[in-house]
């Protein structure tokens, strides 16, 4: 039942505005893929294209070898879970869940049996006769989930399903969604703007920006090895410093930025091109008071307390950088320090002409 | 803080009700009078002026015409107005703003001007039968109410519910009937009542469109008053009141009126 989804060079326009450009994306059978990005990045457009509420201007959409591109929505056989639940207000919980089965021509006793079994799975069989209006947000989303799953669709899609729930419930529900998805093995596309949510439940995450796919990979790779400055900033690499190589000496590279030089080992960083960007999170810059340390000279500015560390705004010749320092040794503003990049927490990006 | 309303509030409320109800009481009283002229309080009690309505054939005919026009006009207005309101709301972003305003125009133009315009352009222009002219005129004056009331209902309808149904395999047309319509039912009923009563009570448009042999009840009442001063007018008015109340009562019994307060 589970099928792969394949988007080939899909573009979409809204009027004359291009909202999606040349998107190619392959979701393997049984995989959960998240589309992640800020609002307007094209993630919801992508979902609506796959669902058939929008038609692409170019490109094709295939599900298990079936061409969906021009197929009307009601013939696509896709389970959808909406942000605002979208339950049928005039039908009972049971009838909501049974709705898709009715469209498939199942008899009423069979519908009831399957819908009840599905409600059982989401833990709501006791509420089968309630009206949707009488349910809490979490319960509504479970009904919506049951309604989408009961038709056993080859593809399940989620449109920001948890953003109307409170923080605690959000975490519980995403675990529940992941468990149901895993045990059913249904190919799934999950749209969200919440990075933690996307990373925690997805096999792979597609990070999107301005209608383009920026990077598509496993969360572990995205988090540690962003492919470009957009993704780097998105996943929290707040320091992005442009460098130019001035000398190579065996494994060691000497690079220069704003008059400061830094010696980097290619054994630790991988191959370093002649011009590059050094990207790191605040945790990746060690604050050292040792004047002989191999780092960028900086003057500490504002110190804030993060609980696990102190964070410093640091003034350097290359502009402001952000670094985290140890809790045991709080430093005063104005202290001259060295910021030492830690290779395992840094990544080297190709220069992009931006910044 | 007490749960009991302030005495002043009770007095004001009572006065407002009195102000609203008193004219009706007077009309009912006058209708029951045994005299051959309009008077209040009634002198002697009699139902003969009610009987008189049905003895005057013009009243009999116009009551039927009025009910026919009101019912058919409302139905046609619903047939046009529901899809129009649906499209205006569903494609709110895609459609130009003035399109919605277009449907309100018939009540923005003074009705008397509207009636005259219809007479000049349609009845005289095409030589259409009077009944048809009346029907078209009434359909047009109630259409704005239908579109407005149903739009209000659709404004609170979440169209992702419709999308959910379609994604579950229900065709768009089927979805409209099984999902959208049941959820705007209250609006449709409210629109029906409002349109029906508006049509039933209309004078200005009908004034121009009625003609030899065919008239509506309010126009017949006017014509009658011009010639006679007997309590028949009062009893017809009472009848019209009861027709309105009957419509409301039927709706209340079958569906409940609470939705009108929503």
TrEMBL record, chain A:
Keyword set includes Amino-acid biosynthesis: no
Molecular function GO terms recorded: ATP binding
UniProt keyword list: ATP-binding, Nucleotide-binding, Transport
Lineage top rank: taxon: Bacteria
Domain ABC transporter: 5-235
PANTHER family in the record: SPERMIDINE/PUTRESCINE IMPORT ATP-BINDING PROTEIN POTA, SPERMIDINE_PUTRESCINE IMPORT ATP-BINDING PROTEIN POTA
Family from the record: Belongs to the ABC transporter superfamily.
Protein name from the UniProt record: ABC transporter ATP-binding protein
Organism: Microvirga splendida
Higher taxonomy: Bacteria, Pseudomonadati, Pseudomonadota, Alphaproteobacteria, Hyphomicrobiales
From TrEMBL, chain B:
UniProt-recorded name of the protein: ABC transporter permease
Species assigned in the record: Microvirga splendida
PROSITE patterns in the cross-refs: ABC_TM1
Subcellular location, record wording: Cell inner membrane; Cell membrane
Regions crossing the membrane: 7-32, 63-86, 98-118, 130-155, 176-197, 203-225, 232-251
Domain ABC transmembrane type-1: 63-251
Keyword rRNA processing listed: no
Gene3D superfamilies assigned: MetI-like
InterPro entries in UniProt: MetI-like, MetI-like_sf
């Amino acid at each position: 039942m589970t099928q792969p989804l394949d988007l080939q060079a899909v573009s979409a326009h809204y009027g004359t505005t291009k909202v999606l450009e040349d998107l190619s994306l392959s979701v393997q059978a049984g995989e959960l893929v998240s589309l992640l990005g800020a609002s307007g990045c094209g993630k919801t457009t992508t979902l609506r294209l796959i669902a058939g509420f929008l038609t692409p201007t170019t490109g094709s959409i295939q599900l298990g070898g079936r061409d969906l591109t021009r197929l009307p929505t009601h013939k696509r056989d896709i389970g959808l879970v909406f942000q605002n639940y979208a339950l049928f207000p005039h039908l009972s919980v049971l009838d909501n869940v049974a709705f898709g089965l009715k469209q498939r021509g199942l008899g009423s006793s069979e519908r009831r049996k399957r819908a009840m079994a599905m409600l059982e799975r989401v833990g709501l069989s006791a509420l089968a006769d309630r009206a949707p209006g009488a349910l809490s947000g979490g319960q509504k989303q479970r009904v919506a989930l049951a309604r989408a799953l009961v038709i056993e669709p080859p593809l399940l899609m989620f449109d920001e399903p948890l953003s109307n729930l409170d923080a605690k419930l959000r975490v519980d529900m995403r675990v529940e969604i992941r468990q149901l998805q895993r045990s059913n093995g249904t190919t799934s596309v999950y749209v969200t703007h919440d990075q933690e949510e996307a990373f925690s439940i997805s096999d792979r995450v597609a990070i999107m920006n301005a209608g383009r796919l920026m990077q598509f990979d496993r969360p572990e790779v995205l988090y540690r090895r962003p492919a470009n400055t957009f993704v780097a900033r998105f996943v929290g690499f707040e320091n992005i410093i442009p460098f130019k190589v001035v000398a190579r000496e065996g494994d060691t590279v000497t690079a220069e930025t704003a008059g400061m030089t830094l010696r980097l080992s290619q054994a630790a960083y991988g191959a370093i091109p002649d011009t590059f960007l050094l990207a790191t999170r605040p945790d990746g810059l060690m604050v050292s008071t040792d004047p002989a340390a191999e780092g960028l000279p900086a003057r500490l500015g504002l110190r804030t307390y993060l609980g696990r560390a102190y964070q410093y705004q640091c003034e350097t010749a290359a502009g402001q950088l952000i670094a985290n320092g140890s809790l045991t040794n709080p430093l005063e503003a104005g202290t001259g320090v060295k910021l030492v990049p830690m290779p395992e927490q840094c990544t080297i990006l190709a220069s992009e002409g931006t910044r | 803080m007490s749960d009991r309303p302030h005495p002043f509030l009770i007095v004001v409320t009572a006065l407002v009700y009195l102000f609203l109800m008193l004219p009706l009481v007077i009309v009912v009283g006058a209708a029951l009078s045994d005299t051959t002229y309009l008077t209040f309080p009634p002198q002697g009690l009699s139902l003969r002026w009610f009987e008189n309505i049905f003895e005057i054939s013009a009243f009999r005919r116009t009551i039927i015409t009025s009910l026919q026009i009101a019912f058919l006009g409302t139905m046609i207005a619903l047939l046009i107005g529901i899809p129009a309101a649906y499209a205006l709301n569903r494609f709110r972003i895609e459609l130009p703003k003035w399109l919605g305003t277009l449907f309100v125009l018939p009540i923005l133009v003074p009705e008397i001007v509207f009636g005259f315009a219809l007479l000049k352009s349609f009845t005289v222009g095409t030589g259409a039968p009077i009944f048809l002219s009346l029907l078209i005129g009434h359909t047009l004056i109630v259409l704005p109410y239908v579109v407005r009331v149903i739009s209000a209902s659709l404004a609170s309808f979440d169209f992702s519910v419709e999308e959910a149904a379609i994604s579950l395999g229900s065709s768009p047309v089927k979805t409209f009937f099984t999902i959208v319509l049941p959820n705007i039912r209250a609006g449709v009923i409210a629109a029906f009542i409002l349109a029906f009563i508006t049509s039933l009570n209309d004078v200005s448009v009908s004034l121009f469109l009625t003609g030899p042999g065919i008239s509506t009840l309010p126009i017949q009442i006017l014509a009658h008053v011009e010639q006679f001063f007997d309590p028949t007018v009062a009893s017809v008015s009472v009848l019209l009141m009861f027709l309105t109340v009957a419509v409301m009562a039927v709706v209340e019994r079958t569906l409940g009126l609470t939705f009108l307060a929503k």
